[in-house]
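Much of the work behind modern protein science is quiet bookkeeping, done one molecule at a time. Below is the pair of lines this work produces for a single protein:

***
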Amino acid sequence: MAKSRKKQRRSAGQRPPTPEDELLEALADALESPTPGPLLAIAGTLLSATVGEVAPPVTELVAGLDDFDRPETAAALLAIATLTGDVELRSRLRREIGAAGQVLPRWLADLDRTEPGDRAVQISSVYGEVDHLLVSATVPGSHPLTAVVRVDNELGGYATDGFLVEQPLDAVVPQILENAGPDAAAHDLPTVDARARIEVALRDLPGAGREEDWTEQRALIAWLAGLLPPGGEVPDSELSDDELAGIAQDFLGSAVGTAWSTADLRPLLDDVLASASGNGRGDPLIWSPHNVQRLLDPELWFLDAETPSLERAPELLRDLIRYGHAERGLRPELTRIALAAVDSAATAFVAAVRRLAEDDADPE
C-alpha cells in the first residue's frame, strides 16, 4: 500500500490553495487509494460539470485537464475516457502514459475490462411507490462495485437518487432492505431488464433540479449499468381499459363489492379505479395514506366532479381497501392505517362535493 501523503500546514504569507491545487491534491490522494472508489468519484464529479443546457461539453473538460500535463490529471482523464466510452481518447492516453513511464494502478489501467455482475435485485416498498434497483460489477483486481438507484414510480419511473458503493451486491441488498422498512420485499430480475429500467430512469425529470450528490453519481451509475447486457424491457405500469374492467369485475364479485354492483354506481367505481392506477406502480388495489389523501383532497379533484354519487367515494374506498389489501396480502395494520386516512379526509371531501352540487344548482 502506498504511503499516506502528509499535509503540511501553510506558513504565514503562503497563498491559499486554488481550486486547481485542491483538485490536483485530491487526484494524487485518490491515486494512492488501494481501491477505485475515490478516483471514480472525482471523475464522476468532473463529468457532472458537463451536464445541463449551459454546461461546457465533455471535450472542453478534457482539454482543460489535458493542459495540466500532470500524472494525476492523466489518470483522471483515463477514467473519464472509460466512463464515457471514448475509445480514441483512452488509446491516446495509454500511449502517452506509457511513454512517460507512469505506473498506474492495475484497476485503472484495465478499467475497460470491468466485468458486470450476473445478478440484479429490485427492492420494493410495500406500496410500490419506490423501487431500489441494484446492479454490480467487478473492476480488475477484484474490486467490487454496486450501484443503487432509487426509482420513484409515482413520478413516472424517474430516478430521484442513487449511489455507488465498493461492496459486493450480496452485502448491499440486506442494508437497503433494512432501510426500506419492515414490509419491503426483494426479488431478482434479469440483468437485461435492470439495465433497461435504469437507463430509462436516468432521464432528467422535467422541471426538476438535480441533487448535487446524485448528479455526481449519475455518470458512474450510467457507466456501470451500460456494462450489463442490452435488450431488456421496461414494464408498462399503465393499466389498459380491459385490465381495469377486470379488476372492477373481480371486486364486484367479492363479498364487499356486491353492494356496489348496481348500474348507477359503476361510474363511481370506474372513476376511483382509473384515478388509483397512478398509485405506486399502478396498482389500484394497494392504498397508502398518501394515495388516500390525494384522491380525497377537494383541492386536487382527482375524481371527476360530475361522476354520479361522488359523495359516496369515501365509502367505496373503504371497501376497495379492505378487498384490495386482502387480495395483495398486506398485513392488517396497513389496512387499518389506510382506513384511518379515509376517515380523516372523508368529511372535508363530502362537504366539498355538496358545495359543488349546491353551486351548480344555484349558478347565481
Remarks:
- The mean pLDDT is 89.
